[in-house]
Design brief:
By secondary structure, the chain is mostly helical. It has helices spanning 15-25, 29-35, 42-51, 61-71, 80-108, 130-165, 173-187, 192-200, 208-217, 228-237, 242-253, 259-269, 272-300, and strands spanning 9-11, 118-120, 167-168, 171-172. The protein has a two-stranded antiparallel ribbon. The protein has a two-stranded antiparallel sheet with strand order 3-4.
Amino acid sequence: IAYNLDKPFKCCCACGKQALTMCMGFGCNAAGVIGCRIIDSPRERLLAIITNNFVPCNGRFPTLIAIITMFFVGSAGIFSSVLSALFLTGLILLGIIMTFMVTKCLSKTLLKGVPSSFTLELPPYRKPQIGKIIIRSLFDRTLFVLGRAVCVAIPAGLIIWLMANIMIGDMSLLNHCAQFLDPFAKLLGLDGVILIAFILGLPANEIVVPIIIMAYLAQGTILDMSNLVELKALLVQNGWTWITAISTMLFSLMHWPCSTTLMTIKKETGSWKWSIVSFVVPTLIGLLVCFLFAQTAYFFV
């Protein structure tokens, strides 16, 4: 597209602005929410904030890559890296498609309004001030976000430890909760352990898989397993199939935001209402997508 650099470039929809903030969400959804400040329209800013979670962040990429490698491309030999990249790209595209679909639905229902124009212009060149850049990035982006994460991570870590170490009968409280959730989780193609791991993984998506390992091994501390062969054997031993693997990836892609993102949404919007909406929308869609996939897969298997 050719246009005059002396004049702003205008688009008739908000997709361009949402795409810019979406890119930040690939690193961290909380950073993506902060990036929504560049959107002038309050309505379109809320649309971008609510749908930002459909973009997988760094906390979900290791889980997605590990499951893809273990269950779908592990025996592909020299082409495993290529196939893994294609699978992962497909999941990312699914997340982007869901972002725009949900945005379209919300713009027709909960957040009706007239789309504003998107103005993209080259700002005047100014000499970078390294000191201000470092200080602004450190305090506005890093420390504040980490502070919100710590506020939730410490009590959440205590809850996880207590659930894993309080024994009721011959099982921990964690496994009792997983057993209680198991019938509902089966409808989604998951199991109770996976579902409770996602619930307890609210502080950070990175701890979902370690909690799953801890529950399967009935250990009292969060564990990590770097050997994917051993991890796959453990998962298969506990009933994982390709349906479980895909359902887990879909739910990882479409479920509630982490606690840091929710607190950032509260700060950016100034209302718990939109934090709750940002929690409920991806969760309901994730439950629906997993249910439809699992029931369809069970029907044909």
